[in-house]
Amino acid sequence: VKMMCEVMPTISEDTAMSQRGSQSSSSDPDSHFEQLMVNMLDERDRLLDTLRETQESLALAQQHLQDVMYDRDSLQRQLSSALPQLHTGECNGERIIAYDDTSA
Predict the structure, then answer these.
(1) Are residues 97 and 87 in contact, defined by beta-carbon separation less than 8 angstroms?
(2) Which residues contact 89 (CB under 8 A, 6 or more apart)?
(3) Which of 26, 29, 35, 72 is the 20 to 30 Å CA partner of 99?
């Protein structure tokens, strides 16, 4: 019975250490991670500022909308009480406005 053994090539420790050293000096994973974290935090701060400004703008727009709706409703009530009732309709595609003058 013949047995075969595979022999792994020997790895010199000096070669392995020098390869690791050259990798870490050219592209240090920790410095890349730190830079990534700094960039993410900067982006988060920028997004939070934008969110805050957008929320303030939305609040102002909603308040303005409420004011305009109040004014519209007030003007509608004034118009309804000042004018006689109008009846509108269409005849041959043209708008017809008839005044309901039942008070006469």
Answers:
(1) yes
(2) 95, 96, 98
(3) 72
DSSP-derived letter for residue 104 is: -
The helix or strand, by DSSP H or E, that contains position 91, with its residue range, turns out to be: strand 86-91
Give pTM, 2 decimals. Answer: 0.48
Read off the tokens for 80: 């309804």
Tokens describing residue 34 = 């730190």
Among all chains, which residue has been given the structure tokens 């703008």? 57
pLDDT above 60 (res 5): no
Domain positions in the chain: 31-99
Task: Tell me the pLDDT band of 73, cut-offs 50, 70 and 90.
Answer: very high
- What is the SS3 assignment for 3-68? CCCCCCCCCCHHHHHHHHHHHHHHCCHHHHHHHHHHHHHHHHHHHHHHHHHHHHHHHHHHHHHHHH
